[in-house]
Design a protein that fits this description.
globular; single chain; 6-stranded mixed β-sheet; 8-stranded mixed β-sheet; D-Amino Acid Oxidase, Chain A, domain 2; alpha/beta; FAD/NAD(P)-binding domain; binds flavin-adenine dinucleotide; 8 helices; 376 residues
């Protein structure tokens, strides 16, 4: 029997992780990436695996999916480390959501009651308990919620690991190769690239992040409704005596420590199209928000400022699953949650592609919820 072949368009964390899971199952898979893998949103992300800290009064299915993905992450990370030989810095210190004035504490308490009602693993901490855990927090902190199961990873190491693991498992990665169009008129899919001859495959996985609308040849009713949502983010260098262990989240910023001493501080959320400029206002607002929670960052060295474009869908939820034409599998629209959701997206998408069936876990996020996508 002829081997089934998959071409993944886009080598971000989503495309690569699906490719890895397929290659691990012995499938023939090729990832095509316009630049180098993982250098767009997936590089810039903070790496928070935040299921409890982010849950809100809406988008409940999304946070249930985040929670399921978070449950998969420890194994996913271990398997990736063993397949690639690369440590992804999985950190299980937990997340502190802090309130730095009375109004913020009232809002935090309302959120906490909601989290508790829905069985999220969270704990209310007083000011003293909070400062005992993280002495570098501002003494103005009023209270906090500890989400002990909200972990973090170093997404750049995950990208390196995925790149290596795909190759070790026999997958192919073509970098510096732009997919211009696809031709769906034959029985197989012809993938047309700039400066190369066509690749023919049984199916494509469209995982081109914020650029997923730009591939020609995809019928307009199958084009996923995604747009870029700009995020600016900074990297500081922690130096003794300064120390943070938990991820810290407040109303205006978050801080994510890495084991190698970097401290990721983010992030803006801006509707600016494909604009990737760093701005004084963006950097100022992130630093102000972070400094109000952790004044000690004032003297830390600023290592870098980066900009990423989150793939935001029309309803801010991922778009994952088969289209009307089942040779087109979409995996995009992960918006602020692509790192945490990469585990469940990859595991369930690979199962779905192997079996030809839709994933019940991902059914809520199917492309078919957008009427015009007309998926059977
Ligand atoms: C500032 C910031 C902080 C974030 N923090 C977090 C966080 O803490 N936790 C979390 O879960 N998520 C976070 N996110 C969200 C997360 O980064 C994204 O949801 C995720 O990276 C999306 O991955 P992706 O693979 O879909 O997209 P991308 O990483 O953007 O990858 C898409 C790839 O497709 C390639 N491509 C595009 N067009 C073509 C083409 N025609 N041919 C070939 N290749 C093409 C691009 O070059 C790119 O490499 C954050 C995002 C930002 C910007």
């Amino acid at each position: 029997m002829k081997e089934s072949t998959t071409v993944v368009i886009g080598g971000g964390i989503i495309g690569l992780s699906i490719a890895w899971r397929l290659a691990k199952e012995g499938q023939s898979v090729t990832v095509i990436e316009r630049g180098e893998v993982g250098q767009e949103a997936s590089r810039v992300a903070a790496g928070m695996l935040a299921a409890s800290a982010e849950v809100g009064y809406e988008e409940f299915e999304l946070y249930a999916l985040c929670r399921e993905s978070l449950r998969q992450w420890p194994n996913f990370a271990r398997e990736l480390e063993s397949d690639s030989g690369i440590n992804v810095d999985y950190r299980s210190h937990g997340t502190l959501i802090v309130a730095d004035d009375r109004d913020a504490a009232v809002a935090l308490k309302r959120g906490f009651d909601f989290q508790k009602e829905n069985n999220y693993p969270v704990e209310w901490l007083t000011r003293e308990e909070t400062l005992e855990l993280e002495p570098f927090l501002s003494p103005r902190i009023v209270a906090s919620v500890l989400a002990s199961e909200d972990h973090a990873i170093d997404n750049r190491m995950v990208i390196m690991g995925l790149r290596e693991a795909v190759k070790r498992r026999g997958g192919t990665i073509l970098e510096k190769t732009t997919v211009e169009s696809v031709d769906l008129t034959g029985t197989e899919v012809a993938v047309q690239m700039q400066g190369r001859s066509d690749l023919v495959a049984d199916r494509i996985v469209l995982a081109a992040g914020a650029w997923s609308r730009q591939i020609a040849g995809i019928p307009s009713d199958l084009v996923p409704p995604v747009r870029p949502v700009k995020g600016q983010i900074l990297e500081l260098k922690m130096e003794a005596p300064f120390e943070l262990n938990h991820v810290i989240r407040g109303r205006k910023a978050y801080l994510v420590p890495r084991t190698d001493g970097r401290l990721i501080v983010g992030a803006t959320s801006e509707e600016m199209g494909f604009d990737k400029r760093m701005t004084a206002g963006g950097v100022y607002s992130i630093l102000e928000g972070a400094w109000e929670m952790v004044p000690g960052i004032h003297d830390l060295e600023l290592l870098s400022i980066e900009v990423g474009l989150r793939p935001g869908s029309r309803d801010h939820q991922p778009i994952v699953g088969y289209c009307r034409d089942r040779r087109v599998y979409i995996a995009t629209g992960h918006y602020r949650h692509g790192v945490i959701l990469s585990a469940i997206t990859a595991i369930e998408s690979a199962k779905s592609i192997l079996s030809g069936n839709d994933s019940p876990i991902l059914s809520y996020f199917s492309p078919k919820r957008f009427g015009h996508l007309d998926v059977k």
